[in-house]
Design goal:
The protein is mainly β. Among the domains are: about 5-35, no CATH class; about 85-165, OB fold (Dihydrolipoamide Acetyltransferase, E2P). Helix content is about 10%, strand content about 30%. The chain is built from 1 helix and 10 strands. The strands form 3 sheets. It has a 4-stranded antiparallel sheet with strand order 3-10-8-5, with no helix packed on it. It has a 4-stranded antiparallel sheet with strand order 7-6-4-9, with no helix packed on it. It starts with a helix and ends with a strand.
Amino acid sequence: MDIKQIQDLIRFVAKSGVEEVELEQGNFKLTIRTKSTGSEPSPAPMYYPQAGYLPPLQPSQSVTSAPTTAAAPPSAEMLAPSAGTAASATSIEIKAPMIGTFYRSSGPGKDAFIKVGDRVEKGQVVCIIEAMKLFNEIESDVSGKVVKVLADDSSPVEYDQPLFLVEP
């Protein structure tokens, strides 16, 4: 690389607003750093591919309001059928062991693995969580009666998110 090309590169970097550029060709390495103007540099743009994802707040930011979408009404089987079977303090949660998409059945149009009021045994498959194109059968770690389904079918779930309430 000759001096003319280096000078052109320096001008280009200065005009572009980039703070640092590294160029390496064979055994030749060039690093160009521009000085900050004293003011706080503007943050690099960040792109969030998932709809509804919000980046973490910076200390100087605050949230005033967020758009909301109307949620689908819960299905009858997701609600506790009566006060006699309502979730109590003795209920145990079956939690998601991983992040992924929660499915109540093995396929579209098929019956759910478990429903409110069903008896579940330890080791019984209660749902499927899809993670990275792998479908993982989730087994119950408790035995008892299903009191409530806490996650919507085909919805994303987080690690350790409660999926079901079971009364032992």
